[in-house]
Amino acid sequence: MKPILYSSINCPHSSKTAIFLAEKGIKFQRVEVSLAKKIQKTPEYLSINPRGTVPAFEDEHGAIGDSLEIMRYIDEQAGEQPLFPSDPDMLQVALQWIERSNTEFWDVSHHLYWQIIQPPQEGADWEEVARLKAKGISLLQELDLILRDQAYVCGEFSVVDIVLIPWVYGYQRFDLPEAGQFPHLEKWRDGLAERSTFRENHNQEGLPLQDFLAQRAAE
Questions:
Q1: What is each CA distance from 108 to 3, 114, 147, 171, in whole angstroms?
Q2: Distance between terminal CA atoms of the chain?
Q3: Which of 78, 81, 167, 219 has the most CB within a 10 Å radius?
Q4: pLDDT band at 219 (very low <50, low <70, confident <90, very high)
Q5: CA-closest candidate to residue 168, choices 28, 146, 75, 149
Q6: Residue 105, CA atoms < 13 Å, CB-side half-sphere
Q7: Architecture of domain 88-198
Q8: What residue spans in the chain does CATH classification 1.20.1050.10 cover?
Q9: Topology of domain 4-82+201-218, per CATH?
Q10: What gap in Å lies between CA 137 and CA 210, rounded to an integer?
Q11: Residue 112's pLDDT band (boundaries 50, 70, 90)?
Q12: Which residues, 6+ apart, have CB-to-CB distance to 80 below 8 Å?
């Protein structure tokens, strides 16, 4: 059975998981679960991932419905060139960055999207936009300081770079950061964006779920 990644275009959680799979050399089929159409809440998808979230990963051993669990599972199954640090202290650092990517980095991206890209009917709250942008700048500045002395966030290329790049890359649509503001961060961001694993897996759309299920039923 070819592994399946149930994902959604423009979902950073889906992008980071797909990039991780590609970095580990896992060949998979991408199936689109449209968040805009709320496909993730349909009975068909809930039978695959009862959490009703994306991404989900399925192989011959079953389905996993959480991005961190997927990445930990794949890192153990495909043991060559692990992307999670083996040192216990560095692993805790990595897990903290993953948690921050899911909370602090998500918060800036999510709420700026609904203020700037898809503003409310009454218009954007520009005070809130300024607050969110200031928070985003603080996060990016922190990374820039770390990357001043090393090529990757944890020293060597790891899961941390993979989980952060979809958010940091996406911040550009909010003009974060300004060009030249954080040169070390921008070098890191642009370098990761040039990797084939990023280009081929960031914001990619798969076969619609209904079409995939129809094909599976016909086999």
A1: 32, 10, 21, 9
A2: 12
A3: 167
A4: confident
A5: 146
A6: 24
A7: Up-down Bundle (1.20)
A8: 88-198
A9: Glutaredoxin (3.40.30)
A10: 41
A11: very high
A12: 25
Residue 84 one-letter amino acid: F
Which tokens in the block code for residue 34? Answer: 């449209």
Q: Specify whether the CB–CB gap between 77 and 61 falls below 8 A.
A: no
Q: How far apart are CA 183 and CA 198, in angstroms?
A: 20
Decide: 177 and 140 in contact? Cβ < 8 Å: yes
**Backbone dihedral region for residue 33 (phi beyond 0: left; psi -120 to 50: alpha; all else: beta):** beta
Does residue 79 carry a pLDDT above 80? Answer: no
Residue with tokens 């942008």: 133
Mean pLDDT of 60-66: 97
| Closest alpha carbon to 86 in 94, 97, 77, 96 | 94
* pTM for this entry: 0.96
Which part of the chain is CATH 3.40.30.10? 4-82+201-218
CA distances from 143 to 17, 28, 38, 72, 101 (A): 21, 31, 34, 24, 12
The CA–CA distances, whole Å, from 186 to 100, 143, 147, 205 equal: 20, 10, 10, 26
| The Cα angle at residue 16 between residues 112 and 111, in degrees rounded to 5 | 10
